[in-house]
Specification:
This protein is mostly helical. The protein is built from 7 helices and 5 strands. Helix 4 links the parallel strand 3 and strand 4. The model has no long low-confidence stretch (mean pLDDT 93).
């Protein structure tokens, strides 16, 4: 879905300078490479080799916009926390429950190709909104994933 949404953006904006950076990771990266070729967007996609998380963490700050998952909505976990911890705004699929949950971190809802394309266009038109979303996400992460759990651990140790 991400690749097709990205391709839609490229079709609408063929002269725009943009890159999708992804890893040769997972069971379906070869199928993804094939899809990139079929959609004729190879010049817009950079494939990095499978690498350790510490190496991935060093390149995440270079991203303007992240992507989490488009097949199953997640509310915690690796890539999601990596983007939040670094203040990078990101796209992900979601559910109505997530959209209505005011306690959840900020993210850009993208449940299909059109919404992914629209989110990329939205970023270009209103970068400040997305940058602010990333900053709010980082504060959310520090409070909910670092501070509150640490307080619980400290309280348990001290009691």
């Amino acid at each position: 879905m991400l690749i097709k949404g990205f391709a839609k953006f490229i079709q609408k904006n063929p002269t725009f300078k943009i890159k999708l950076v992804t890893l040769e990771y997972g069971n379906d990266f070869l199928a993804s490479k094939k899809l990139v070729k079929e959609l004729n967007i190879e010049d817009y996609v950079m494939w990095l080799p499978k690498m350790c998380r510490k190496e991935i963490m060093s390149i995440i700050p270079l991203a303007d916009l992240g992507a989490v998952s488009f097949s199953m909505p997640w509310t915690s976990g690796g890539v999601l926390y990596e983007y939040l911890s670094m203040g990078i705004p990101f796209l992900q699929c979601d559910t109505d429950n997530m959209k209505n949950d005011s306690s959840i971190y900020p993210y850009i809802s993208a449940n299909n190709d059109e919404e992914i394309c629209g989110a990329i266009e939205g970023y270009i038109k209103n970068k400040d909104f997305f940058i602010n979303s990333g900053e709010i996400g980082k504060k959310w992460f520090l409070k909910n994933v670092v501070q509150i759990p640490m307080e619980i651990i400290i309280n348990e140790i001290e009691s």
